């Protein structure tokens, strides 16, 4: 299974329309891949909160969804189109990831569950998703997560329980927390015993320098490929059978203890203390 991560430079001087056309051309050029992955909120910029409402678009019939559907069909690839600012017909905004099949059909939609911002930005402007989403491809089951979700391992456990073998994580991660990015991407792969495809943005938008450094990490936690800080493509061949063999050879997931008792209000004193 050949995967290509497209680390896009979100340049504030480039119009959304121009970027959409440029990214569609990049996707169309990946016809040798099985799966292509784009970053989080690449049409707008993950930190451009002031533009979220004005640049929101629907999943059905929106310009980005239409362009990415056409690009997936032209390349004959599965396309995780990163995420868009979705305006739901009922009113709320969502940070929404879209997965297209090689025929251009929309096969999965994931609305980001954990919103970043600590009472500002995305955390207050967007509603939270409420569904754990996986999608079956011919070669593997994908689990979908987005950026800040990376800090919440319980979501990844649920994805594993739902059968995920490859976890796709588009992101707009700031450069000042690059060390956290690297540690957390590897940690989620190790604990899930799954491939993690983490695709970030490059450049600086809304005054926030982006980390770049998209990564592909295997089920043992080995970094198979890592981008630099600028716009770049990473292409890696994945072996879904390695997920199964890792889980059989080192069956840590088998030893999970579920239904732990609720924590007591205070810790019991140690004997002799």
From TrEMBL:
The lineage of its organism: Bacteria, Bacillati, Actinomycetota, Actinomycetes, Kitasatosporales. Keywords: Hydrolase. Belongs to the carbon-nitrogen hydrolase superfamily. NIT1/NIT2 family. GO terms for molecular function: hydrolase activity. PANTHER family: DEAMINATED GLUTATHIONE AMIDASE, NITRILASE-RELATED. Signal peptide: none annotated. InterPro entries: C-N_Hydrolase, C-N_Hydrolase_sf, UPF0012_CS. This is Carbon-nitrogen family hydrolase. Pfam families: CN_hydrolase (PF00795). Residues 1-240 form the CN hydrolase domain. It comes from the Bacteria.
């Amino acid at each position: 299974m050949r995967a290509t991560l497209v680390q896009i430079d979100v340049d504030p001087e480039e119009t959304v329309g121009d970027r959409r056309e440029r990214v569609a051309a990049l996707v169309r050029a990946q016809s040798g891949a099985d799966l292509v992955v784009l970053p989080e909120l690449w049409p707008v910029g993950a930190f451009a909160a002031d533009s979220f409402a004005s640049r929101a678009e629907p999943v059905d019939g929106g310009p980005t969804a239409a362009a990415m559907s056409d690009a997936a069909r032209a390349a004959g690839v599965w396309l995780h189109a990163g995420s868009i600012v979705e305006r739901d017909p009922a009113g709320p905004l969502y940070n929404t990831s879209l997965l297209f099949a090689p025929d251009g059909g929309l096969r999965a939609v994931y609305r980001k569950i954990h919103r970043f911002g600590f009472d500002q930005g995305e955390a207050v402007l967007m509603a939270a998703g409420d569904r754990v989403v996986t999608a079956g491809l011919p070669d593997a089951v994908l689990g979908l997560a987005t950026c800040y979700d990376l800090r919440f391992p319980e979501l990844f456990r649920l994805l594993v329980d739902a059968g995920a073998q490859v976890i796709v994580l588009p992101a707009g991660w700031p450069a000042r927390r690059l060390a956290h990015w690297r540690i957390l991407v590897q940690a989620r792969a190790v604990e899930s015993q799954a491939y993690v495809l983490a695709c970030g943005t490059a450049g600086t938008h809304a005054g926030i320098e982006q980390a770049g450094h998209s990564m592909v990490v295997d089920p043992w936690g080995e970094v198979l490929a890592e981008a630099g800080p600028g716009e770049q493509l990473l292409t890696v061949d994945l072996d879904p059978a390695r997920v199964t063999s890792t889980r059989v050879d080192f069956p840590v997931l088998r030893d999970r203890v579920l239904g732990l008792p609720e924590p007591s209000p205070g810790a019991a004193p140690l004997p002799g203390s």
